[in-house]
Amino acid sequence: MTTSASAATDRFPDGFRWGTATAAHQIEGGNWNNDWWAWEHTAGSGTREPSGDACDSWHRWDEDADLVASFGFDDYRFSLEWSRIEPEDGEFSVAALDHYARVCDGLRERGVEPVVTFHHFTLPRWLAERGGWEHRDTPERFAAFCDRAATRLGPGMSRACTLNEPNIVAFCGYLLGVFPPGHRDSKRFAAINDVLVDAHRRGVTAIRSAAPGVPVGMTLSMSEWVAVDGGEERLDRYRHHMEDVYLAATGDDDFLGVQTYSRSRVGPSGNLGPEEGVPTLVMGYEFWPQALEATLRRAWAVTEGEVPLIVTENGIGTDDDDQRIDYVHQALEGVLRAIADGIDVRGYTYWSLLDNFEWAFGYLPRFGLTSVDRTSFARLPKPSASWLGEIARNNRLSPKPS
Ligand code: GCO
Predict the structure, then answer these.
(1) Does 165 qualify as catalytic in the annotation?
(2) Cys-Cys with 51: which of 12, 72, 99, 357 at CB 3.0–4.6 Å?
């Protein structure tokens, strides 16, 4: 369905938003009070290395804000660390809330709009230890956290994302077993999907009540799903659990964040992995930038165009910055084709601003537009940063550098 044919136009619609993204645990450093820190130090978890100091962005957030502004982006998507804001059950930190309010203010002072993710994979230890998402009260506790944070940040936020990739939280934490709590149980996986849908809905209600007028939605990991040799039935089953249960829960939202990296090939007996001859990346999946167009088209079709779409994550983990530019150029051509066909795509957010802690993969995959020295924490923009920044400033697709 998708080809690498050039798009009809190289211009994006007026008002199209350009941004880049990070997440607290992946960049802040020292987030010892959450389930991921404990998981990283659990024998057999499979995590390549601990997050440690990460990019020291808890202290260097202003350097990050300077980078985003210097590239010429409209938005910066970052996440709140729940364990800093509510370090103990019912005990909220004014200082931590003030920190994130300063980040929002600092971004706006630089002409950048803050897009705030309330939950990006991590839970406070006190909550994880009582069962995490399997404890009956957790969706309500998430809503209470959203209320406190949204009350403090309020109109300082330009957009609010409730849960980042709830499907990945469920799949990796309860079926694949590579995220905390490390279960491999299809029944628990299916049950957690329902819990996270409930948490999302409660989070939307809480944020709308605390910060009226701030658009709110979820960000969902999506894949271009391809059936191979009669894999249709298995594909439908996988995709239902991985995407459709969440897409069905977005009708009342103000937007849907689409987050796409590659495709998933499914045969009659399950996942097939990369196709012979297609380049693969350090993450283990194919170099497949055309997946973004496919997922935008599917999200629009399944939600029947009820909510505007925003690409809230797209990017590539690679040491080859030319390959990064090639990937993004192809992905953006697909976005232009989708828009040309009437799909309401409001923005594109590159993952990530910084090379950072890539969960179970540690610091091996480099998704950043900016490299970070892991000892001095010095930030060094890559050529792709100025290339994508030019596209953002012109709102127009630039050719790949010759
Ligand atoms: C995810 C998260 C990010 C990742 C990014 C690259 O999808 O896992 O949103 O935290 O770092 O997607 O894999």
Answers:
(1) yes
(2) 357
Residue located nearest, by CA, to atom 13 of ligand 1 = 358
CB of residue 313 inside a 6 A radius of ligand 1: yes
CB-based burial label for 94 (10 Å; 0-12, 13-18, 19+): exposed
Neighbours of 355 (CB within 10 A): 26
What SS3 class is residue 65? helix
Ligand 1 centroid vs 85 CA: distance in angstroms?
A: 22
SS3 of the chain: helix, strand, coil, percent, to 5? 40, 20, 40
Query: Is the minimum distance from the CB of 358 to ligand 1 under 6 angstroms?
Result: yes
CA of residue 261 to ligand 1 center, whole Å: 9
CATH class, domain 17-394, is: alpha beta
Report yes or no: 222 and 299 within 8 Å, Cβ to Cβ: yes
pLDDT tens for the chain, 402 residues long, are 444 456 668 999 999 999 999 999 999 999 999 999 999 999 999 999 999 999 999 999 999 999 999 999 999 999 999 999 999 999 999 999 999 999 999 999 999 999 999 999 999 999 999 999 999 999 999 999 999 999 999 999 999 999 999 999 999 999 999 999 999 999 999 999 999 999 999 999 999 999 999 999 999 999 999 999 999 999 999 999 999 999 999 989 999 999 999 999 999 999 999 999 999 999 999 999 999 999 999 999 999 999 999 999 999 999 999 999 999 999 999 999 999 999 999 999 999 999 999 999 999 999 999 999 999 999 999 999 999 999 999 999 988 888
